[in-house]
Amino acid sequence: MIKKSTIPTLLGIIVLLAGTFLGVFYLNMTQVFRIGASPETSPKDVRISSVGNNTATVSWTTDGETSGFVTWGENQNAISKVELEGSTDAKYYTHSITLTGLNPSSVYYYKINSNGADFDNNGIPWQITTGPDLGVNQESYPISGSVISAAGNPQKRALVYLNVGGYLQSTLTSATGNFVFQLGNIRSPDLASFVAVDPERTLLEISVQAGPEGTATVQVFPKSAQPIPPIILGQVYDLRNLEPSLGGQSPSADLQLPEGETQESKFNVATTSGNLKPTTVILENIDEGEVVTSVEPEFFGKGPAGETITISVHSQEPITDTVQIPSNGSWSWSPPENLEEGPHTVTISWIDTTGITRTLTRNFIVQAGELPAFTATGSGSTPTPQATVAPITTTSTPVATSTPQATKTPTPTGTPLPAPVPVTGDLTVTFLLSMIGLLVIAFGFLVWKQAGNELNA
Asked: How far apart are CA 82 and CA 84, in angstroms?
């Protein structure tokens, strides 16, 4: 009798321990979710664009301003390489990171880290497949444009996507709201060949994503895209009937600002005092997608004195050289031979003070002849609109992407991120399970006591 009466007591102890363990585990899981998967930091509208034989661009948006990076590799179980969004931990609504040094016709896997939490495609990494090496397309066809907010301000860091027959290119607008695309880089959907662009029939579908500032879409033919009239966020344009520019003049659109808004110059030159020593390498004279008019361009910028940087120009004949930054922190370099006209990529790499290899990449176009009216380094003033362009009534729906899911991972060495503040969980489950355990123990004690009394009787 006594041995049988101890069974409920042991069961109560087991339930008590199990309840405590489950309660603590529940609180920890709740806390991790709240820290790593905040809706404001979750990547949205994740896209792969500008895929070539050795590069690909990953872009996304967030509801809040966040900093991020991409981890990637050739094996989905060993994603160890890191590509940063920039040299600082600046926070943005729009994000774009270009992976370089890829191999032709190869498969790569990647995850997005946003504010310290990894996001993937429902538990598995996203996937990229590069195209074959097609060399450099000698057919150069640059187009350009500018993005303006609804208030009439140049929109910087807006994601601009160009869809040509299913092939997607992307870029970020410059500080003055300008962007440039090179149609010579357009490939077929299977990436196996370059696409022959017909200036009058190849439809260009452009979409702009500027986070909380809004979106815009444009349909236009290449003949009327040198440059495209200013794109106002919140509008949908059908420019297929727009006549091409004549005599180097830009086609224009009616810029309708909201009531109460006035046009004013947004050009502002910030002044600084003192001589600040640079802590990282920067390239000052080439913006992403810029068109240069010299076959002997000079690259210059700033960096830590004594640092050795490696400069590589990727074109039909790759050029690689090294430069040691002088004591004044200003460096410059020109390629030893002329660059052919067309698209090029310059990559600057160096090893920082923590021993991590950093890279900086810019795509640019060499065009020794006539330039388009807008380039990536245009003036700070907004062109004056003249003609009216009728917006279309329908807009294309972007392809839905899988919902990213977050997992807590360690931060890569050399990439400091702000530590999140833990959030207190709900103790209700732990209390309930603990009370059940205590009740079972009390019940077991009463049974044991009753059995003892019967035995004594």
From this structure: 6
Peptide linkage before 227 cis (omega within 30 of 0): yes
Q: Count of alpha carbons within 13 Å of 66, Cβ hemisphere only? A: 27
At 435, is the secondary structure helix, strand, or coil? helix
Q: Which residues pair with 308 in a beta bridge?
A: 324
Q: Give 122-134 pLDDT, tens digit per residue.
A: 889 999 999 999 9
User: End-to-end CA distance of the chain, in Å?
Assistant: 13
Q: How many CB atoms lie within 10 A of CB 15?
A: 18
Distance CA 8, CA 24 (A): 24
- β-strand pairing of 299-302 with 282-283: antiparallel
Tokens for 290, please give them.
């810029």
451 three-state secondary structure: helix
C-beta of residue 106 within 8 angstroms of C-beta of residue 133: no
One-character DSSP codes across 7-63: HHHHHHHHHHHHHHHHHHHHHHHHHHHHHH--TTTS-EEEEEES--SS-EEEEEEEE
**Residue 294: is its pLDDT beyond 90?**
no
Question: What is the C-alpha to C-alpha distance for residues 264 and 99, in angstroms, rounded to an integer?
Answer: 39
Angle at CA 204, nearest 5°, toward 198 and 206? 160
Return the axis-axis angle of helices 428-456 and 7-36, rounded to nearest 10°. 180
- Which one-letter amino acid corresponds to residue 335? P
CA distances from 283 to 110, 154, 168, 305, 373 (A): 27, 22, 27, 15, 24
- Residue pair 326/338 in contact (Cβ under 8 Å)? The answer is no
Q: What percent of the chain has pLDDT over 90?
A: 36
- Written as one letter, the residue type at 67 is S
**Whole-angstrom distance, CA of residue 8 vs CA of residue 13:** 9
Q: Does residue 454 sit in helix, strand or coil?
A: helix
The string of pLDDT tens digits covering residues 115-124 is 888 998 888 9
Q: What residue ranges do the domains of the chain occupy?
A: 2-36+426-456, 282-366
Given this model, what pLDDT does residue 385 score? 38
Query: How confident is residue 267, by pLDDT bands cut at 50, 70 and 90?
Result: very low
> Do residues 252 and 231 touch, judged by C-beta distance below 8 A?
no
Q: What CATH number has the domain spanning 282-366?
A: 2.60.40.10
